Amino acid sequence: MNAVQTYRYLASSALGQGSLALQTSGGPAPNPRFFTGFLTTPQAAAVGLLAVAEVARTRYHRPISPASLDPVVTGSRDRLRFESFSGCCGVYARLDALPAGLDGDVVEHGTTNVDVNTPLREALTRVGGLDPLHLSVGPDDLTVSTMDGEVVEKKVPLPVRWLRGFAEVQVLAARFEPRAELPAAEAAAFLRRLPAGNDRSVLWVVPAGRSLRLTSRPVAGAVCLSGASRLTALRPMLRFAKALRVYGPTVAPGSAPVPSVWELDTGALRLSLTLSPEPYRGFSGEGAALTALAGDDVVDDADLISALLSWDPTIDVDRLAGQAGIDAGRVRGALAQLGTAGRVGYDVAEAAYFHRVMPYDAGRAERDNPRLVGARALLDAGAVERDGTTATVRSGDEVYRVRELPDGGLTCTCPWWAKHRGQRGPCRHALAVRMLVTNQVEERV
Questions:
Q1: Can you spell out the DSSP letters for 157-171?
Q2: CA distance 169 to 296
Q3: Quick one: 141 and 177 in the same domain?
Q4: Among 168-177, 302-311, 366-375, 416-425, which stretch is predicted with the lowest mean pLDDT?
Q5: Where residue 62 sits, what CATH number does that domain have?
Q6: Which PROSITE patterns does this one have (predicted)?
Q7: Cα(first)–Cα(last) distance of the chain, in Å?
Q8: Higher pLDDT, residue 272 or 141
Q9: How buried is residue 438: exposed, middle or buried, by Cβ count under 10 Å (0-12/13-18/19+)?
Q10: Which domain holds residue 107?
Q11: Whole-model pTM?
Q12: How far is CA 130 from CA 45, 229, 267, in A?
């Protein structure tokens, strides 16, 4: 999809005379300055920023010319987060500048896009180990210790696919657990052994002593590594890292490919790459958020939770549930709804959600999820008839059967389910049945 959402700022961003003025959007005041201070590990921070920008400009599936160069940056009380998706939307990158990495104050909560164009890339490349890197993110400046001339940022377009990607990644990552941790030396050796070039194979890794062992089939405790060459963006950061951590969902023998997170930790910074289940699959089409968006109360819950969100570094689901007077499951559904507007992310290292300030309403979930729209239309038309653990769904001239599995999952006789076997979220028929069941349960309560 070529449609974009555009931030509008008071002025353009510019780099000149040793300072970069980066405009912002969001927060309690128009175009607030939300951070002023130094990054305590400037060279590592510059390398990390370049890695996030490199992912943004790369299409790992069917490589063509560079894509977007505009990572998203969020200031949140004691940290900064820089995020991007690859041009194919199959890799999500994030650099977290943690409290130990900042010598300054995050005085407002805000989100903006950073224009990492060629002059700025060259300036960051020249940041040496003793060079200070000073950031003041706001309407006036983001100061860096380079003298590379002037860079002017145009108004920043944010692709709709990125918004959908933000929604899917936070739902998927919330199911992940730590699976392995490697010291830096072993991490470097492991990454050197990976296939190079435009590799599209699906591999699996399992802990083996202080390292990881590659295997062609999933086993209990394994982590999926699909398109291993997509981890290339981590390599420049290896010399600063203390450890590589790997996260993923629970798998078993015979499991289909699943996403995974690969994270380098320097102590002051964390650089992570989240890989889609297969190189040709972009996160924007995974459908993981659809079930969470299916409840009738989810829109109202999202409005309530949105009003309660603070700008703490992480979101406490149980605290929000207590404040809102709803259960934790409904809070997670509300967070998924807010995620469709890019306003919620998930940090696997903290095992917690975090808040972005985005100029989009949570109601866009309906517009951006055709399967959700189709499921609601089927319900409104009375096209769903349930009989125990099975249901009949009439769609036009076709009739489909949806069956509930012992684990609570749903299967369908439609072509979508036959093709994807539930790996890319529910089809609209199964989603409509899920909505009907949820509504009937709520009515009985």
A1: EEEHHHHHHHHHHHH
A2: 23
A3: no
A4: 366-375
A5: 3.10.150.10
A6: ZF_SWIM
A7: 41
A8: 272
A9: middle
A10: 4-157
A11: 0.83
A12: 13, 32, 18
